[in-house]
Amino acid sequence: MSSAPANVAAINFRQVSFRINGTHELLRELNLQVERGETLVLLGRSGSGKTTTLKLINRLLQPSDGEVRVDGRPTTDWDVIRLRRMIGYVIQDVGLFPHFTVERNIGLVPRIESWPAERTKQRVDELLLLVGLDSQIASRYPRELSGGQRQRVGVARALAADPPILLMDEPFGALDPITRAELQREFALLQERLHKTVVFVTHDMREALLLGSRIALLEAGSLVAVHTPEEFVQSKEPLVQAYMEAFQTGVQVSRRREVV
């Protein structure tokens, strides 16, 4: 858990740029603060810098310029293993170990942290219940699960050691629309209970409005706007309006198809 004062932001980007090959800029002078307990959604098109921003938090990448602070400390000052163990990470293709059972996948970090076997087993059972899965699924392998079940296991694994921060990179993007909507609702309810600090990457406007405490819109590596969902809908920023218009058009098309 965090030892930093409560008024210190969970995550803070200060003039952060990231370049590859020394010249190609993927992120440009990003200033962004993530408050404790909020779900900040990073919204934008492919190549806008969303996943790069996410990877800078758990030091899978390091800034070319500026600094990223977690709990008030630059990520470069953290022991990288300790940093990553306080950050749960959920990705679109889940990344479960195929030769591990569900129980072993979820209990991986607790075992690395040398939790007693009984405590680890109890935690796995708690988390399966928390994400809406039957405890009998614990002995199955990822290949024996549906896409929605695998994604739930991925969320459970990220929560296993009770990290204060969750990074979620389009976690529901590969699912069918019905399963995706179910998991979005379940995640929103889960966050109401857990109050984790969540940074959630998506290109889906509906998902951003549903899940975000605030929405940070990125375009071509630059931060365009940061708004609450209510502010986002009312914004006069041209790019924000373009997103809203595209979203509303999509909603109208869906309704017409339902009628037909």
Explain this structure.
The protein has helices spanning 50-57, 80-85, 102-106, 108-112, 117-130, 147-159, 177-194, 205-211, 229-234, 238-259, and strands at residues 11-20, 24-34, 39-43, 65-70, 73-74, 87-91, 165-169, 197-202, 214-219, 222-227. It is an alpha/beta fold. It has a domain at 1-86 and 167-174 and 198-260: Rossmann fold, CATH 3.40.50.300. The strands form two sheets. It has a six-stranded mixed β-sheet with strand order 6-7-8-3-9-10, sandwiched between helices. A four-stranded antiparallel β-sheet has the order 2-1-4-5, covered by helices on one side. α5 packs across α6 (147-159). The model has no long low-confidence stretch (mean pLDDT 91).
Helix content: 40-55%
Strand content: 15-25%
**Quaternary assembly:** single chain
Our count of helices gives 10
Summary tags:
six-stranded mixed sheet; 10 strands; 260 residues; alpha/beta; 10 helices; four-stranded antiparallel sheet; Rossmann fold
Draw up the topology in text:
Elements lengths: L10 E10 L3 E11 L4 E5 L6 H8 L7 E6 L2 E2 L5 H6 L1 E5 L10 H5 L1 H5 L4 H14 L16 H13 L5 E5 L7 H18 L2 E6 L2 H7 L2 E6 L2 E6 L1 H6 L3 H22 L1
Parallel strand pairs: 3-8, 3-9, 6-7, 7-8
Antiparallel strand pairs: 1-2, 1-4, 4-5, 9-10
Helix pairs in contact: 5-6
